[in-house]
Amino acid sequence: MPDDILISILERVDLLYATRTCVLSKRWRNLHRFLPNVSLNCYLLVGPHCPETYRFMNYPFLMINSLDRFLRLRSGSKIRSFRLTCCLKEPLTERFERCIYFLGRLGVEELSLNCCCDRSWTYTKFYFSCQLLSEMPLLKDFKLGFCYLQPSLRIQSNSLQSLSLEYVTLCPGAIECVLSNCLRLDCLKINYCKCPSKLSICGPDLKLKSVYLSPPTGLSLE
Q1: Is 42's pLDDT higher than 70?
Q2: Alpha helices (H) along 14-148
Q3: What is the DSSP pairing of strand 110-114 with strand 141-150?
Q4: What pLDDT digit, counting tens, does each position of 116-130 carry?
Q5: 204: exposed, middle or buried (C-beta count within 10 Å: 0-12, 13-18, 19+)?
Q6: Is the link from the previous residue into 215 a cis peptide, with omega within 30 of 0?
Q7: Among 45, 138, 196, 214, which residue is least crowded by beta carbons within 10 Å?
Q8: At1g61320/AtMIF1 LRR domain: which residues (predicted)?
């Protein structure tokens, strides 16, 4: 069978099992590296066999090492859609930014990032800077959850069309930063986020077609 058919078969199974097909034969060895849609979590990156105390202290560092290695192995191939659900912490910010840079080089168009794999940790102390949007020039759809969104003085994203935020703490000026610089954005969703007392939905040449806020409690929109 042609490689594209084999890759379509691998797309239908968990990434962990797709990776294991590399032992089947030389023909299968590198095919998993060309999957266009990738979904990763702590279990896939690190494994389930860590003691609980070790998990909370070192899991994030093991995870970022594994993520960095995975993306480097994908060098030269295309990732269209990337989903990551993992426990991220503030000390990992700089290394995670390098991972975002790699995703940008791999041509990611859809990105879903949940910075906590345990929903009991409602707001993880992890910061995502709007500047990182500039590192992904083809990104069209971005979903972000369980972290802090920070504004940036320098940002340019001409491709982003949809932004969904869930359980995100919006630092003052973050949304305004996105709206002022993501000129093709037409859909904005803000679900169960911690917002400033006043949220300004405005920007030059704003093309928003839909704005969804939930729950809209005590929030002043301008």
Answers
A1: yes
A2: 15-20, 42-46, 52-73, 93-105
A3: parallel
A4: 876 555 556 789 999
A5: exposed
A6: yes
A7: 214
A8: 71-199
